[in-house]
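Reviewer 2 asked us to include a model.

Predict the structure of this chain.
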Amino acid sequence: MTRVIHTGDTHIGYQQYHVPERRRDFLAAFRQVVDDAIEDDVDAVVHAGDLFHDRRPTLTDILGTLEVLETLDDAGIPFLAVVGNHEAKRDAQWLDLYASLGLATRLSAEPTVVGDTAFYGLDFVPRSQRDDLEYEFEPTDAANAALVTHGLFQPFDYGDWDAGEVLQESSVAFDAMLLGDNHAPGKQQVEGAWVTYCGSTERASASERDDRGYNIVAFDDEVRITRRGLETREFVFVDVELDSEEGAERVRSRVGQHDLEDAVVVVSIDGDGDPIAPASIEEYALDAGALVARVTDHRELAAEDRETSVSFADPDDAVTERVRELGLSGAARDIDETVRASKVADSNVADTVERRVREVVESDPDALTASAEQTEETTESTADEDATEGTAEADGGESAASSAAESATTDDEPTAQSDGQANMGEFL
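Predicted model (structure tokens):
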């Protein structure tokens, strides 16, 4: 029998909410997986991509990951992995660095045999290149075979890659596909094989409310998949439905019912009631000990009725507040979030936006259109601002969408990170 930990989407280096503590949390979650692997004496740790959050991780992130992998290697447990979409580079991958040090194996079309199981790898492949794939893998005499890869596969939600087609066309009969990219765990049988996601080890988005964890996969006469949770930083989710005469006091009361110490607090407001300044609720949560506080008011309030307070200490917060004022439809806000959100890798933005726009337009052709009143107000406001200050586009700048699209097709030379640390590219 071969027993492995199946993990992925660790996103090491993600400084979520621009808070250093969150950056450390992502590495700590990966370290916890490795500690569990050593304690359980598993045969291997199999990583299904997105070890790093970015293709240009800082030296601190690289060395922190190196330390964790050295601990695993000292225990005699191999680390088998593929490259995900977030970390993918056009040249040598960071995974190759660890492989050159004997700390990792980059899985490929050739089998890596652990116990009685052969593991194969397929790095993330953009949708535009998948038609050319032949799924040719070197045969094996091992009793079991597993394919480790990264992407959004059908029959799971949001899948744009057919797992059944991969299994049918592969030259090796796989007993399992161990997947990464979808941050929610799940498993289904396809073409007689188990197809499973391990989920992410930390919450990379406020939409990821379920506990984080990884899979334990045992290969024997049959494949058995079990789930184990991880202890991660507390996220406090507060959903408030306001009545017509309720307002900020009701929201503060609901938030105050929770232990907020060192937690990430995510407040969602719906219903009726008075206008609320999200910043005032965030300040209340921070004063109560929260590490981070984010408030979203989903109510359709006219811009002139909404009290706003923008802190320019965080440019992302300023942009978010400005988007709120634009009065966009829910679908349009979703597209904006896709373009600007850190969770969606540059290489995925174009495909993700295209898919979401197609889905929205098919279900409601008017979903992306703001009301005439909102459009008029926005146009007048923009005209006034342009007359006095000008815009980035007018000066030859680019929109967030076009910048993201360029990033998806251009691999810039490594540069120093925003925290002043040089990345490993300068040392290779």
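Residues 301-306, 308-313, 370-428 have pLDDT under 50 and may be disordered. The longest strand covers residues 235-242. We have added this to the supplementary material.
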